[in-house]
Amino acid sequence: MRDFLESAVIGFNSFVIIYFLALNSLYLLIVLIASRAQRRAQRMSSETALEDLFANPLTPGVSVLVPAYNEEPSIVSSVHSILDLRYPQLEVVIVDDGSTDGTFDVLQHEFELQPSTRVAAGVVETVGTVNSVHISRDGQIVVIRKENARRRGDALNVALEYSRYPLVCMIDADSVLEKDALMHVVRPFVDDPERVAATGGAIRPINGCPTERGMILEKRLPKAWAPRIQVVEYLRSFLLGRVGWSAFNGLMIISGAFGLFRRDLVQQIGGLTADSLAEDADLVNSLHHRLRREKQDYRIVFVPHPVCWTEVPENLKILGRQRRRWSHGLLEVLWRFRQMIANPRYGRMGMLVLPYYVVFELLSPVVEILGLICLPLGVAFGILNWKMAVLYAIVAIGYGILLSVVAIVVDDLSYKTYRRWKDLGILLVAAFLENFGFRQLHAFWRLRGLWSGIRGSNASWGEMPRVGFKETSGASG
């Protein structure tokens, strides 16, 4: 019996080591691909190119779609940040999704909204009943009030129905875009109008940054360690991961906080899946699914330079709820598109990207939690020696820290987002601390989300309490 247990524990821990070696090595490969793409993107983002785009009469108009539920603290700043964007032709379509706070009241007061007779296009099916439509005097802001369907995807579909421009930009109501962000993500559509179907931009946590009327006065790190660690996560995910996947047209996720899509293509697939917990990933995969079945030559592009700043959870309770939802949503998406997995008909999406997400994203919390249980048990019962335990730590933790440090260094060399040496030091400490407690808790949250999805639990978005942006009349040192 002991021989069997020894073989099982040693075999499983060997599997865990190989698993994390493969995971981190694949990520390192993606990082190398991303580094080349970063250099190319920087060459293309010159000021002259943006000026040409701004003056080009063929630059398409953009409807910015903003779903809002109880966003009273930050919605006005967010809308101001959109109106202040440097872009020749845009409108803001806000859907007040049954808010119970003063979201509509602050919008009506700030932008002098008037009742409107604008009607829906009637192309995409929606769920929540629309109660009223309001529009600003200059026609640039449209606010639709509807019953809450507890689904962000339904609110976006309503906004899509009332939009009028050929490109639709989907952002969160608690987001702030940098002044040229829209120009950067539109540029691939202008350069390659026949093939580009969607683009996405980088997301950064705004917590701790002083703002004024929707403009960031100074880029600072959050005060608390939980959002600081999320800054490192976002750098690793957006600056390296998605850039790498985009380089060979294998982008599976464009964040719901900042994505740009051709409106006609979104309408053709019936809009967003209203009951999906990961409606952003679901939308991108729906496009891949349709365009590959139709054998169209297309591109879905991630642009690393434009930055969308958004509020991230400050406390672990809200963060845990968010990560459980993400894990549950990922399972939903992979299950919905299961016929694409390992199917040569869908090219690299079917043969590489989706299998990667199944093995190394969906199942990784299972492997990590079991490894955390088996390793100390093996050492305690004398089945494993300490050398094996150290090897596990180096592979699972040391490699992960290395990737985080690479992401921080690439960001500093490429964009110098945070100008103080102190901030760089804090990020490096956060990259280290992430692996001692936070990462294990994160794996536990994701495992709960996965289990919830397997059981078919009726999960919903839930509420994320907003503290609003740190409005100030000026930045202090």
UniProtKB/TrEMBL annotation:
Chain ranges passing through the membrane: 12-34, 354-383, 389-410
Coiled coil: none
Keyword vocabulary terms for this entry: Glycosyltransferase, Membrane, Transferase, Transmembrane, Transmembrane helix
InterPro entries: Nucleotide-diphossugar_trans
SUPFAM superfamilies: Nucleotide-diphospho-sugar transferases (SSF53448)
Top-level taxon: Bacteria
Family in the record: Belongs to the glycosyltransferase 2 family.
PANTHER family reported in the protein's UniProt record: POLY-BETA-1,6-N-ACETYL-D-GLUCOSAMINE SYNTHASE (PTHR43630)
Protein name: Glycosyltransferase family 2 protein
